[in-house]
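re: that chain from earlier
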Amino acid sequence: MEQTKNSRLTELAQFLRGRRERLTPELVGLPEGGRRRTPGLRREEVASLAGVSVDWYTRLGHPGVDAGAGQHRARAAAQRQ
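^ sequence. v structure.
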């Protein structure tokens, strides 16, 4: 069965969130940065590590947003641990 674009984007959003939750600032060489409401890295931290804007990274997991392959690779490299 072929996945729709929406379901692929939903899967991508879930993947990115799961990776963010498993990483800590210390694992990627960032200062702790104080209290966190949720575990893992903040979107801003991942965006900075991946070399993309916070706005772009935040919108990435929402249906209707498409990203180029180079930016997918940059995010993957930033979250690889």
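The chain has a mean pLDDT of 80.
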